[in-house]
């Protein structure tokens, strides 16, 4: 079995152990400890087993440490898929959301994700799932707002009159709280005092 060669020697095994103790990420701390064991001359199998990984994984971390130092021991975030819409197209979608839908053209009175997905497909030829449209809206700084439903033929004057007369319909609050009754609910029954039934 070939030995692992750590070519970056700026930190000793003791310094790697100290960094492992102070490091906030437990995965990186484990990798630092494995590297310290390798620097101390332990076999690849022993160092890997004592740190909860296999030999091949340890070899990969040694190569990353040699190339990038301690920063190479951190997990990298996957870059993700390339956006389907360009920056100009996203700006146009943002302008649609700000201006609201056109009832004659779009057939809706407020945007839903499915409506925006259809319009994006018609305009740009790009098919987006509703969930992807939601992510796009979040990235553009929009959040979902829901308004209280209002009938289009609602009479505003009648509504205001109702608000003014509503307190007359409600019973007046009692100035003193009701006296506690000895029959109040919520108490526990004493053991043996409940009737056992027929």
Automatic annotation (TrEMBL):
<dbReference type="Pfam" id="PF13551">
    <property type="entry name" value="HTH_29"/>
</dbReference>
<dbReference type="InterPro" id="IPR047655">
    <property type="entry name" value="Transpos_IS630-like"/>
</dbReference>
<dbReference type="InterPro" id="IPR025959">
    <property type="entry name" value="Winged_HTH_dom"/>
</dbReference>
<keyword id="KW-0614">Plasmid</keyword>
<dbReference type="InterPro" id="IPR036388">
    <property type="entry name" value="WH-like_DNA-bd_sf"/>
</dbReference>
<feature type="domain" description="Winged helix-turn helix">
    <location>
        <begin position="108"/>
        <end position="165"/>
    </location>
</feature>
<feature type="region of interest" description="Disordered">
    <location>
        <begin position="148"/>
        <end position="198"/>
    </location>
</feature>
<dbReference type="Pfam" id="PF13592">
    <property type="entry name" value="HTH_33"/>
</dbReference>
<dbReference type="InterPro" id="IPR009057">
    <property type="entry name" value="Homeodomain-like_sf"/>
</dbReference>
<protein>
    <submittedName>
        <fullName>Transposase of ISAli3, IS630 family. ORFA</fullName>
    </submittedName>
</protein>
């Amino acid at each position: 079995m070939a030995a692992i060669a750590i070519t970056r020697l700026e930190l000793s095994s003791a310094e790697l152990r100290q960094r492992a103790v102070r490091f906030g990420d437990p995965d990186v701390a484990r990798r630092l400890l494995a590297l310290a064991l390798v620097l101390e001359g332990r076999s690849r199998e022993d160092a890997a087993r004592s740190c909860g990984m296999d030999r091949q994984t340890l070899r990969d971390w040694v190569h990353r440490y040699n190339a990038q130092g301690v920063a190479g021991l951190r997990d990298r975030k996957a870059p993700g898929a390339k956006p389907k819409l360009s920056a100009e197209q996203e700006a146009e979608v943002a302008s649609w959301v700000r201006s609201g839908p056109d009832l004659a053209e779009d057939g809706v009175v407020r945007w839903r994700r499915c409506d925006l997905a259809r319009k994006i497909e018609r305009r740009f030829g790009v098919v987006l799932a509703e969930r992807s449209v939601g992510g796009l809206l979040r990235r553009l700084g929009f959040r979902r707002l829901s308004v209280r439903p209002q009938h289009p033929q609602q009479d505003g004057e009648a509504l205001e009159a109702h608000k003014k007369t509503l307190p007359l319909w409600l019973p007046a609050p009692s100035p003193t709280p009701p006296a506690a009754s000895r029959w109040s609910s919520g108490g526990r029954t004493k053991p043996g005092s409940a009737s056992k039934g027929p």
